[in-house]
User: Which sequence fits this backbone?
C-alpha cells in the first residue's frame, strides 16, 4: 500500500499473482505472494504513465519488441542489498524517498527531486563507508579527546563514559549524520567501544580509550569539501565552478498579506562549513562555562515582553510596569538558582510617544535620526545568559539536562525585553514545562508576553523558505515616516532596537549600500518595530547615505499563523498608513519649498532696493 502513487512505481502485476483488491485504500498485506516478488516491465522507449493503484493496477499492453527491464522489490532486504551494492553514499542517503524500488536511481545518476513523494527524513543508519585507501588519500582528519570529571563527584553530568558516548552520538544525529553499522565497517574499526557516524563527505569516529579514561574523537572531511577548497572555488570567476559551492534557487510562494504568489530565492551550499565540534563536545561533557555561540546549531524558542504604550503615558504607569517586571525577575532568579540583575535604562532618553502633529522640517532634513555608529552599536545589544538546570543526574535518569535562558542586560519600559530558551541537552517535555510556567507567571503579573520567530532576530528576513515578507518601498521621506511610526502611540509600535539585515535580496531596486568585500556580510543596521498586539513586526532598511533622499524599505512580517483575511487586513491598514505619511511629507516639503522661494524673492527685492538707494 505504501509502494505507489507516483510515476515510476509498479505498474501491472506479476502474471501468476492473485488479483489486486478492488479498493486500493485497504489492500490485504497478509501473506500475499505478490507482495514478496513485485516487479514490472518498464517501457524504456517512452515515459510511463501513472498507475491507478498502489500495488495491483491494471496491466498495460506492451509490445514484445520493446526493451524490458525488471524492478526489484524495495520491501525485500535481499533485493535492496543487491541494488545498493555499487551505490555511492549520496545516492544511498536519499534512495529511501522514492515509492518503489530504486527506479529513479537506476535511470538517473542523480536524485530526481521532481519525483519526491514524501518528506526526505534521513534514516538513522547508512551502510556506506569508504575504503581505507580512499580514507587515507581523499580525506583530511583531526583528532582530540574529551573526558568527564570524576564520575563519583557531585558535578559529574553522567554516570559512565557509555552515557557520555550516547550523548555525543545523539548530538551528531541531530546534525544530519548517520550511524554506520559495524557490519559495514572494516574489521579494524569494529571494536565494541568504537562508533562511526557519516555524512558522506564528513565522517566521525568515537572511540573510548579505557586506559586513559577518555573518548577520542576523530573527524574526517573530504578534501574537495573542506573550507579551504570551497573558498578557492568561490574566488574563481567561473560561475560553473562557483556553483559547485553555492547555488541560487528561485521559486514562487503564496503571500497571505498580498493574497498572491510572490518570487522568492534561497541559497544552498553543497557542503556546510566546518562545524565547531570540539567546543560542543566540551559543553556536553560538563564544561561549567556553558556558552552557546551563533555558529553552533542548537534549538531555541524566543519570547518578548511587549509593553502597552497606553499604560505608560504617566510616570505612575511606568513605575507600576517596572514593579511588575521586578516580580518576574524574582521568579526567574528563583527558578535558575541565581540572582538575575538587569540595568534599568532611563526611559526619557528613548523615543517618547507624544502623539503631537509632525512639524514641517527644512528641505533635505529627514527628521531626528541616530548616527550610523549608534545604530551599529545597538545591533550588539548586551544579553545575559543563565544556566537553567532541568533534570539532575540520578540512577533512574542518567542524563543531566540543562538549558540556557538568555535575557536582555538592560530594561526600558518603552522597549521590548527579550527572553529566550536555548538548549542542546534537554528533552522537549522539560522545555515545554518551563515555557508554560513562564507564560502563566507573565499572565499573573499582567505582562504582555509574545512568542516570536527566528526571523525577528536574524539578519536574513527570508530565513523561512515558505515565508516571503512583503515590502513597501518609499523613495523619499522614509526616515521621517519611521520617526512618526514610533512617535505616535496610537499606532501601537514598540521599539525593538536595530538588527543587522541582509540587503542582498531581490526586490530592492537601485538601493545604494556601501560596497563590502566578498567575505564580509552584506548587512546594514535596520530598525525593528513590534506591534503591541504581537500580530506583526516591521523591519525598516535604509540606504547607507541616510538622508532625506534615501530610499527606505518597510518589511512587514506576520508573527502568528493568523487567517489569510486577518493578515491581509492588517497589511492593508499598514500600507494605508505609510501612504498617508508619505503624502503628508510631500506636502510639507512643498510648503517648505514655497517658504524658501518666498524668502529668496524677499531677499531679491531687498537687494534691488539697496542698489537703488546706493
Assistant:
Amino acid at each position: 500500500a505504501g509502494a505507489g502513487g507516483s510515476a515510476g512505481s509498479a505498474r501491472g502485476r506479476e502474471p501468476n499473482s492473485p488479483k489486486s483488491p478492488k479498493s486500493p485504500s485497504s489492500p490485504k498485506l497478509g501473506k500475499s505472494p505478490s507482495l514478496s516478488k513485485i516487479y514490472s516491465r518498464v517501457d524504456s522507449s517512452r515515459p510511463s504513465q501513472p498507475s491507478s493503484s498502489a500495488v495491483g493496477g491494471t496491466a498495460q499492453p506492451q509490445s514484445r519488441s520493446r526493451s524490458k527491464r525488471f524492478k526489484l522489490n524495495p520491501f525485500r532486504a535481499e533485493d535492496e542489498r543487491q541494488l545498493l551494492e555499487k551505490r555511492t553514499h549520496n545516492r544511498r542517503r536519499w534512495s529511501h524517498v522514492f515509492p518503489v524500488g530504486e527506479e529513479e536511481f537506476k535511470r538517473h545518476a542523480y536524485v530526481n527531486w521532481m519525483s519526491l513523494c514524501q518528506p526526505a527524513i534521513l534514516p538513522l543508519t547508512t551502510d556506506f563507508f569508504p575504503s581505507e585507501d580512499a580514507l587515507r588519500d581523499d580525506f583530511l582528519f583531526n583528532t582530540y579527546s574529551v573526558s568527564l570529571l570524576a564520575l563519583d563527584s557531585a558535578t559529574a553530568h553522567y554516570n559512565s563514559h557509555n552515557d557520555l558516548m550516547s550523548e555525543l552520538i545523539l548530538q551528531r544525529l541531530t546534525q544530519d549524520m548517520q550511524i554506520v553499522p559495524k557490519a559495514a565497517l572494516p574489521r579494524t574499526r569494529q571494536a565494541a567501544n568504537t562508533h562511526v557516524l557519516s555524512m558522506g563527505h564528513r565522517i566521525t569516529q568515537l572511540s573510548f580509550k579505557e586506559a586513559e579514561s577518555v573518548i577520542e574523537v576523530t573527524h574526517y572531511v573530504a578534501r574537495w569539501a573542506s573550507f579551504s577548497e570551497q573558498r578557492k572555488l568561490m574566488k574563481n570567476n567561473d560561475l560553473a565552478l562557483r556553483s559547485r559551492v553555492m547555488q541560487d534557487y528561485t521559486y514562487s510562494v503564496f503571500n497571505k498579506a498580498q493574497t498572491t504568489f510572490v518570487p522568492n530565492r534561497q541559497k544552498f551550499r553543497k557542503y556546510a562549513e566546518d562545524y565547531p565540534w570540539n567546543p560542543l563536545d566540551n559543553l556536553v561533557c560538563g564544561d561549567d562555562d556553558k556558552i552557546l555561540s551563533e555558529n553552533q546549531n542548537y534549538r531555541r524558542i524566543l519570547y518578548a515582553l511587549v509593553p502597552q504604550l497606553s499604560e505608560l503615558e504617566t510616570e505612575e504607569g511606568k513605575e507600576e510596569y517596572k514593579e511588575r517586571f521586578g516580580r518576574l525577575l524574582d521568579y526567574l532568579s528563583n527558578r535558575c538558582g541565581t540572582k538575575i540583575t538587569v540595568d534599568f535604562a532611563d526611559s526619557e532618553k528613548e523615543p517618547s510617544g507624544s502623539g503631537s502633529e509632525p512639524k514641517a522640517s527644512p528641505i533635505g532634513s529627514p527628521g531626528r535620526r541616530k548616527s550610523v555608529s549608534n545604530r551599529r552599536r545597538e545591533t550588539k545589544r548586551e544579553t545575559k545568559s543563565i544556566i537553567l538546570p532541568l533534570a539532575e543526574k540520578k540512577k533512574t535518569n542518567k542524563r543531566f539536562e540543562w538549558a540556557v535562558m538568555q535575557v536582555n542586560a538592560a530594561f526600558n519600559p518603552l522597549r521590548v525585553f527579550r527572553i529566550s530558551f536555548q538548549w542542546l541537552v534537554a528533552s522537549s517535555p522539560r522545555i515545554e514545562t518551563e515555557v508554560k510556567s513562564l507564560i502563566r507567571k507573565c499572565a499573573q503579573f499582567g505582562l504582555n508576553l509574545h512568542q516570536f520567530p527566528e526571523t525577528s532576530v536574524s539578519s536574513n528576513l527570508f530565513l523561512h523558505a515558505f515565508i516571503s515578507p512583503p515590502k513597501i518601498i518609499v523613495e523619499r521621506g522614509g526616515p521621517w515616516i519611521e520617526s512618526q511610526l514610533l512617535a505616535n502611540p496610537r499606532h501601537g509600535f514598540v521599539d525593538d532596537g536595530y538588527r543587522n539585515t541582509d540587503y542582498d535580496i531581490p526586490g530592492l531596486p537601485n538601493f545604494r549600500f556601501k560596497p563590502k568585500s566578498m567575505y564580509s556580510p552584506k548587512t546594514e543596521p535596520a530598525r525593528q518595530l513590534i506591534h503591541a498586539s504581537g500580530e506583526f513586526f516591521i523591519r525598516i532598511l535604509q540606504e547607507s547615505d541616510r538622508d532625506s533622499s534615501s530610499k527606505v524599505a518597510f518589511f512587514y512580517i506576520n508573527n502568528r499563523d493568523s487567517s489569510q483575511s486577518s493578515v491581509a487586513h492588517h497589511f492593508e491598514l499598514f500600507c494605508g498608513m505609510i501612504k498617508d505619511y508619505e503624502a503628508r511629507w510631500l506636502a510639507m516639503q512643498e510648503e517648505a519649498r514655497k517658504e524658501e522661494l518666498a524668502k529668496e524673492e524677499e531677499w531679491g527685492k531687498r537687494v534691488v532696493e539697496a542698489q537703488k538707494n546706493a
